Amino acid sequence: MSVGTSSAAGAQDAGSPPAAARPPGDPACLGIDPDQLPDGLVVADEQGRVICFNAAAERITAVRARDALGQRLEKALPLEDLEGRRWWQLTDPYGGLAIRVGQPERNLLLPGGREVLVSARYVRTRPTGPVRRLVVTLRDTEARRRTERSHAELIATVAHELRSPLTSVKGFTATLLAKWERFTDDQKRLMLETVDADADRVTRLIAELLDISRIDSGRLEVRRQPVDIGAAVGRHIQAYVAAGQPADRFLLRVQQPLPDLWADPDKIDQVLSNLLENAVRHGEGTVTIDVTATASPREGEDTGTSVTVSDEGPGIPEESMNRVFTRFWRGSKRGGTGLGLYIVKGIVEAHGGTITVGRAPGAGAEFRFTLPVSAPAYLA
User: Fold this and answer.
1) What pLDDT, on the 0 to 100 scale, is given for residue 77?
2) Are 238 and 273 in contact (CB under 8 A)?
3) Residue spans of beta strands (DSSP E) within 161-266
4) How far apart are CA 137 and CA 122, in angstroms?
5) Does the N terminus or the C terminus of the chain have fewer Cβ atoms within 10 A?
6) pLDDT at 5 over 70
7) Looking at the predicted structure, is the pLDDT value of residue 1 above 70?
8) Is the pLDDT of residue 2 over 70?
């Protein structure tokens, strides 16, 4: 943004009357209304006096525009670096190197110690000429701090989740190596099965972290193949029954005929696994899965496939509905990293689909995702 506003200021500078011919802060000096900009904007003239101080700059600095306009820049915007040095004296925009075009964004301090992100652009009528305009952009650091907190929470969660299985793996392997002969075959098998399960847990966590990285960077790849979504749900139900869940806890209803679905089978399995695990672990009563044909969420396609997973538990509080698909949201204290539903949403959206959460008819939670059929062009 600083480049764009500097360019506007530069264009005005070359072909318009000097700023002194206009009231200080006149929006025409930029060709736009500075108060419409989301970032703070401060412009100083060739004498270093403030001629523009927009509403965002007022909000960020807590300085009123009428108090800043006409003041020397270093007085209206007294910035210091993190070592306490006065920023305008240090950079000397009007008397410094004539080849310098600006200052990159960096953290500086306002009076009182509040941090702000500042970048500057020096506008000259010709290369190496005197500075005619100094354009400064200001951004609050709160957004960056939220990102940093999110990263810190992710690191803390990962460290916590890794510590338990790795401690178990280390303890059992060290014990077996030191006292192998003292244990019976059944004891050895139990220890090795525990190590194997903990290794799987670590592998799943690493896979979740890789998925989050790809989702956040927009690099989540979808390898589309024909998917029988009803059969995929059936396999997950069979796995739960084999693991000890009663068969009558699950109700699968598949509407026929379904459109041919082209999707990434591994990632759709991941979505189904997370939603069913969520219903089994946090819900109660019968887990109902409805697979139906529906309108496609993608413009230009007529049909899509919808999967609804609902339970009869206490459901999700209304005030938490908008946080369900965010990082670290946990519906209860029954464990988990709180990353599963965030990944589910990323996978569904990577397919061009949508996912929603609501209250089931039986008062439990209801998750519904809809995918476009995404048939290849040669099948259309």
Assistant:
1) 93
2) no
3) 225-227, 250-254, 261-263
4) 12
5) C
6) no
7) no
8) no
Tell me the pLDDT tens digit for each residue of 174-192. Answer: 999 999 989 999 999 999 9
Region 57-74: mean pLDDT is 93
CA distances from residue 208 to 216, 343, 351 in whole angstroms, order as listed: 12, 8, 18
- Which contacts qualify for 169-176: CB closer than 8 Å, 24 or more apart? 169/195, 169/198, 169/199, 169/202
Cβ-based neighbour number of residue 106 at 10 Å: 13
Q: What confidence score (pLDDT) does residue 131 get? A: 94
Amino acid found at 26:
D
Place of tokens 């569904």: 348
The answer to whether the CB of 109 falls within 8 A of the CB of 115 is: yes
Neighbouring CB atoms inside 10 A of 268's CB total 24
pLDDT tens column, 105-159:
988 999 888 889 999 999 999 988 999 999 999 998 776 777 667 677 777 767 7
What share of residues in the chain are helix, strand, coil (percent, to 5)?
45, 20, 35
* CB-based contact 107:122 (threshold 8 Å): no
> CA-CA distance, 206 to 211, in Å (whole number)?
9
Mean pLDDT computed over every residue of the chain: 83
| Strand residues in 8-93 grouped as ranges (E) | 40-44, 50-53
Q: What CA–CA distance (Å, rounded) separates 312 from 298?
A: 31
Query: Whose CA is closest to 222, among 345, 344, 350?
Result: 350
Tell me the residue type at 354. T
Q: Which tokens belong to 80? A: 């210091």
Q: DSSP 3-state assignment of 355? A: strand
Strand pairing report for 225-227 and 131-140: unpaired
